[in-house]
Amino acid sequence: MKHDKISIKWKIFVYLLGFTVAIIAILWLFQIVYLNTFYKVIKRHELNNVAKMVEKYVGNDNFQTIISNISRKYDVCINVIDTNGDSLYSAETKPGCAIHNVSKQQYSDYYEIAKAAGGSTTLDLDDKEHVGNGQNNGEVKPEQNDDIKSVDNEETEITQSDVVQNEDLKVDESKPLDIRMDDNGGHFKMFNFRDNSQSVVYMNILKTDDTEELLLINSLITPVDATVSTLRIQLTYITVITLILALLIALLISKRVSRSIIKVSDSAKKFAKGALDVHFDGRDYREIAELSDTLNYATEELSKTENLRRELIANVSHDLRTPLTMIIAYSEVMRDLPGENTPENVQVVIDEAKRLTDLVNDMLDISKLQAGVMTLNKSIYNLTDSIIDVMERYSKLKSQDGYNITFEYTEKVKVEADEQKMHQVLYNLINNAINYTGDKKIVKVKQIVKGNIVRIEVIDCGIGIEKDKLPYIWDRYYKIDKTHKRAISGTGLGLSIVRNILELHEAKYGVNSIKDKGSIFWFEIRVIR
């Protein structure tokens, strides 16, 4: 039957390729789309950690040295001011830092912002909103450029045309520059507003004794546009290379993984068509190896069952044909020949008809037992008397053919069981012993009582059973002697019936046998006192 579903090889291929695409997509999201966001989050987290570290050392005698070291290590600016806007402690890593080049009024504004926020807050400052960002600043001495005019302590805005061309200065002609005179009156600080850098300022009101101080920590968030551009180019190459490798690897893995499964599937198709000699040899993976072993075991068992079925047909055909042939032959003799209609000939016909009936009944019984539809009608009865009754039915066999069939017991016991089914067990075990006892024709039945358990043994002095064949004698249709011969009594299906009846009674059973010395078949059942 043809299925429309995709094969396992292509499913594995699609899954591996999909996984690779998902990983690449995640890389693009994290490295390109959300890189700036992650960068800001990390910088803010770092700023908070630095703030906690600084606050820890407030009041320390070496506070100035400590904040200077922290400032250099984490590349941040630190400033502690009083309520009047005067700087008490300061550490600056970049000239023109956002928290150092502001007026007292701005310090006062910072203080009010922090106070309104409950004592601490974080403030984002754009470069264009604050002249203190010294990301791209430089110092130019007046005497180095005669074209720059300055006024003491006044801010002067000039354009590119007012500045002598200088190889060290790379500026945008379309945007103004801001140049300020420093407090010493000898140097200018030039601020370029052309980048999109952003300052993050952490503010916290520190309370020491009865006074309040404002802690300011500034960290510069540099634009990552250039980095994103570089990463985009790199990831483009990485994506192409990774996809090509993923395609090749996915094809290779899917082919290798599915190879054994396809092989086992092909063998299973042959097996389904009746090829019982097929062998499953998938060994690449543990699960496939276990599946192959299970299928090989099933193949062996089905082969055995098929062989036994063929033997059963041959044996049953023989057993059915023999009584039918005798019934027809004796009936024709009695019809065609005068004086042959004797009681002896009639008895032969009756006996063969009974044998035929027993054979059919046994086949029906074993079918019911193996199907689990046979029920037990348990009752308490005398097992010893039941065995004696069975033994009396073999008296004719003993007198005519010289069989020595004996029953040994020391006391009579009662059991709770299905008496009719236990009769059948005894008949089949004794019949089996008679069929295989050999020329000595000795069969013993023993009853041994041990506490609350009675053990019944049926002993013959026949050919015995080889040790490697003992586990199979209870199987349906199994015959040790493959050369079929007509049994003296019984149908030849006895041991399989015995096993199923004893298992229904939850009784223990078994066989002990020695080659060329005979066998002992036994079962045990609980005694009712």
Report the β-strand fraction as a percent range. 15-25%
The major beta sheet can be summarized as: 7 strands, mixed
Helix count, DSSP H or I runs of 4 or more residues: 11
Q: Give the low-confidence spans.
A: 127-195, 482-490
Distance between the termini: 63 Å
The percent of residues in helical segments reads 40-55%
Overall mean pLDDT = 76
Q: Structural class, judged by helices and strands?
A: alpha+beta
The value of Rg in angstroms is 53 Å
Give the helices and strands as they follow along the chain: HHHEEHEEEEEEEHHHEHHEEHEEHEE
Total beta-strand segments: 16
* Large-scale geometry: elongated
Question: TL;DR?
Answer:
By secondary structure, the protein is an alpha+beta fold. The chain has 11 helices and 16 strands.
Q: Can you give keywords for this protein?
A:
529 residues, alpha+beta, 7-stranded mixed beta sheet, 5-stranded antiparallel beta sheet, 16 strands, 47% helix
Can you offer a commentary on this structure?
The protein is of the alpha+beta class and 529 residues long. The protein has helices at 8-33, 35-56, 63-74, 104-116, 225-272, 286-336, 343-371, 383-392, 395-401, 419-436, 494-504; strands spanning 77-82, 87-91, 120-126, 138-140, 156-158, 177-181, 188-191, 198-208, 211-221, 379-382, 404-408, 414-417, 442-450, 453-460, 508-514, 518-528. Helix 1 packs across helix 2, helix 6 runs antiparallel to helix 7 (343-371) and helix 10 runs antiparallel to helix 11. The protein starts with 7 loop residues before the first helix and ends with a strand. Residues 127-195 and 482-490 have low confidence and may be disordered.
